[in-house]
Amino acid sequence: MEIALFLKSSPYSGGDAATALSLAGAALEAGHKVTLIASGDGIYCFLKEQKAKGVPNAGERFGELMKKGLRAYL
């Protein structure tokens, strides 16, 4: 099965990025193909060298998922 996610929220303004990370990670682990489309503020989830304090670094986590097969379009 192929799953598509659409992310338009900034990485630390709420739970949308964390939810997208969790869903994408679980789907990849289950053997599904996952495509994520980031638009608007969602593209900030892919910036390198973010200085996140007290929360997981979205850029690093999305990068890890991309190494596992996540296809991301900005």
Keywords summarizing the entry:
alpha/beta; three-stranded parallel beta sheet; 74 residues; Hypothetical Protein Ychn, Chain: A; 2 helices
Number of strands: 3
Radius of gyration from the alpha-carbon trace, in angstroms: 11 Å
CATH topology: Hypothetical Protein Ychn, Chain: A
User: SSE order, as H and E?
Assistant: EHEHE
**Residue share in helix:** 25-40%
Overall outline: globular
Strands of the widest sheet, in order across it, are: 1-2-3
Summed up, the domain count is 1
Mean pLDDT: 93
Which CATH top level class fits?
Alpha Beta
CATH superfamily: DsrEFH-like
Q: Which secondary-structure class do the elements indicate?
A: alpha/beta
Q: What share of the residues does DSSP label as strand, in percent?
A: 15-25%
Low-confidence stretches: none
Explained architecture:
The protein is an alpha/beta fold. Helices cover 32% and strands 20% of the residues. The protein has 2 helices and 3 strands; from the N terminus they run E-H-E-H-E. It has a 3-stranded parallel sheet with strand order 1-2-3, with helices on one face. Helix 2 links the parallel strand 2 (33-38) and strand 3 (71-73). Helix 1 packs parallel to helix 2. The longest helix is centred in the first third of the chain and has 14 residues, at 16-29. The chain is globular and about 35 Å long. The protein starts with a strand and ends with a strand. The model has no long low-confidence stretch (mean pLDDT 93).
